[in-house]
Design a protein that fits this description.
With about 290 residues, this protein is α/β, with parallel strands linked by helices. It is about 30% helix and about 25% strand.
Length: about 290
Amino acid sequence: MNEGGDPVTLESPVLLEPETKASPSIRVTTAAASAATPAEGPPVFELKKFSAYYGSFRAIKDMDMVIQPNRITALIGPSGSGKSTVLRWLNRMNDLVPGAHMGGEVLYHGVNLFDKRVDAVEVRRRIGMVFQKPNPFPKSIYDNVAFGPRVAGYKGKMNELVEESLRRAAIWDEVKDKLKSPGTALSGGQQQRLCIARAIAVQPDVILMDEPCSALDPVATLKIEQLMFELKQNYTIVIVTHNMQQAARASDETMFMTMGEDRAGYMVEIGSTSEIFTNPKRQLTEDYVSGRFG
């Protein structure tokens, strides 16, 4: 990739397809996303010898990881092992953190996310984030969902986009008669699904979820997990969770991380969830998933 020249766009390695008439905007898909077996296609993310630093402290060291399209990948491991840090680097949330820098490569559909010519705002539109604690804006339910598209200059039918996003987030039937009510008035589980609706309203390619169920009761947690299964038909999902049962239930792939003596997080093993929980390759992984430590 040349250092000079025109700004890098993320269109080059992906296919742009028009949405249906109900949502006439543009969304990103990959060639693999329309294939019969999407996991066989090119990866969405590829990390090569990735290390993350905050000042002189190395938070993650020498990580090699591939994330496949239209799958749910769970990141598990003890607190402090760098799981949430990985998410923050995948959508460049650390750009404005003083002293934050990285080594290696983070590729998104083959494009180096940290090439100086890549637009960080466009990266965050395509790679959405749902946080641990639901954080609806102090606006109406409708305006929460419409906020992102308005900022992005969406020119389509906003009412249809808001309804479609709320339907995809499995909350439309619960809020359709109170769209002008504050999003903060909803229950915790509803607020989290509203935040998911807000994330998908800008037509992302990837949804990152940082412990999205940690503050929710079991019923609300189950709804989020069911929603994740539905969303992976259209999106790639990466979730951080400390709940081993949730990782085993709700993910296709699982990556186990821990930390070394220098407190730097590293990847121990990644594979299919069934393999990680029933027949891991590393003893350290087996000890963690069986509850012997962590």
